[in-house]
């Protein structure tokens, strides 16, 4: 069997190694039956349009559905490429061994009742199938699998009802799904015009899994984009590598992950660890690999259809909206703002055309409302659309369609010619409740025009388009100098399992993090002297590696001014700390009070599945409540760090808030890059770090608290 070794990670099946299984010239159906409704009968019925040879196998019958029925797979003249086992679980393993002995190129197993039951003996049965695949080199799909299809071949290996889907005339969407039922639910997009090349479901994935199937489609010429639905994987790095293969092949991979709990963060000590859960790590790793992650099942095929038809990257960031309804234009503007998609105003050349064709009660701007007068002046819509499409400010056009009618269908060829002429996607936001009305299928079937059945998903996809283009060209990751790495390694080796604030900030400062000035006081007199030197009004905190969250422990005093207040705060803090059983107290940190500003949390952790990750968010003491956080694998390039910050829901706060000046995003991105370099350099010894908060104010950016947790036992 031919396999490709992906850069030291677990191997993926090569396309050639799966071709006899997924694109077979002959298929053996083991357990074939003439009984109506039986899986063996349904599969044979579904293979009626298949162009290759079909061989029923069952010793009870001489013929089924007019085909010679063989007593065993070994009796098939010339053998078979793909063996489909349609029997109950108890008969599967012996038949799989017979198929391997007969030289098949792959096996599909429908039977359920294996590892999904959780019963040890059933888990062992599934593992024996996996061991058979490993030992023989014969790939196995399933068990607990609904099946696979290749529409170019007319091949439908499944017991699901026949969909009678025609082979795609051009590039199409390949569907990969861990869930068989949901995978074939996505297949039905073909009923309203979406081009589908394959449906490949993996079931329990004892051998072939979703990563193998994505890698296979990446090399298949019939597939132009992929829609992937999955729950999770034991070896997620394989799927990330497969996503990179898809991106390298120019085939967008759109992913919807269900089962999105954050159980992986339960043991975290830092705010970063609390926020950077399993789902966030999956999303970040897949996005870095060039995949597009969507939140909702309903968005999966729609988004994949856009990426199938659109250029790899927008030629300009702006989007133009042209509509016949002022309300639809307002709706578009609302959704564009929600997803931070710019709607710049047209240039003078375009404005001149709009003003000449649009009534005074319309809108000769962006969004452009040509009004219902388009019914009296049918050419006005085309003239305005051409003017906006030609404007270099725009990389895409969105045309809300408010009524399903023959007129809507008749406009599709014009929209397609517009997309081809300017190399910009034309997106129809379908607003009628007549979901399959005239115009809908015509758009879906057209290779150059995209249909969205939600204005929100339309603009979410516009934003994802820009993010994907940026992810595929991030630039070179920022790295620390060898001297900085070595010094930090020595300091970490000498430190305890948790680095308290002062130690942590000293290390992070060497990686470019600006930190607040401070003095460690071990007496009231020392605290008074430190406060006087630092400017009078100070913050005072207990310094202890055993108190990671000082606010919750009550060991912070802010705005302390004057000798008497400093002495009282010192005594009070030490008294509170003495009541914290087992906490090692180094003294009291005295820091100048930092001006109020925007509080930002930055951090990093080593994810158990994906390795070093960097996080950024808005928060301070409410960070767990707000949960506005973004995550990316480390190390980071500067452009990637900027894109991370732009991905925050509250990113508008960086442009200026309540009289504060805008945040220096280049400086903030550089700090993120420094954290990325730190966690990547020391992932073998550091498990998580936290800066909460980093304050952005008129004086710039400064970290006022930090924590670093090392690998190993914690206090």
The termini sit apart by 50 Å
Average predicted confidence as pLDDT: 90
Strand order, sheet with most strands: 11-10-13-12-14-15-16
The proportion of strand residues reads: 15-25%
What name is given to the CATH topology of the largest domain?
A: Rossmann fold
CATH superfamily membership of the largest domain, which one?
NAD(P)-binding Rossmann-like Domain
Q: From the 3D coordinates, which CATH architecture of the largest domain would you assign?
A: 3-Layer(aba) Sandwich
Number of helices: 25
Shape: flat
- Structural class of the helices, strands and pairings? alpha/beta
Gyration radius over CA = 30 Å
Give short descriptive properties of this protein:
715 residues; alpha/beta; Rossmann fold; Dna Ligase, domain 1; 7-stranded mixed beta sheet; 7-stranded antiparallel beta sheet; 25 helices; 22% strand; disordered N terminus
Describe this entry's structure for a reader.
This protein is of the alpha/beta class and 715 residues long. Helix content is 36%, strand content 22%. The strands form seven sheets. A seven-stranded mixed β-sheet has the order 11-10-13-12-14-15-16, with helices on both faces. Strands 22, 27, 28, 29, 30, 31 and 32 form a seven-stranded antiparallel β-sheet that branches. Strands 4-3-7-8-9 form a five-stranded parallel β-sheet, sandwiched between helices. Strand 1 and strand 2 form a beta hairpin. The two termini are 50 Å apart. The N terminus is likely disordered.
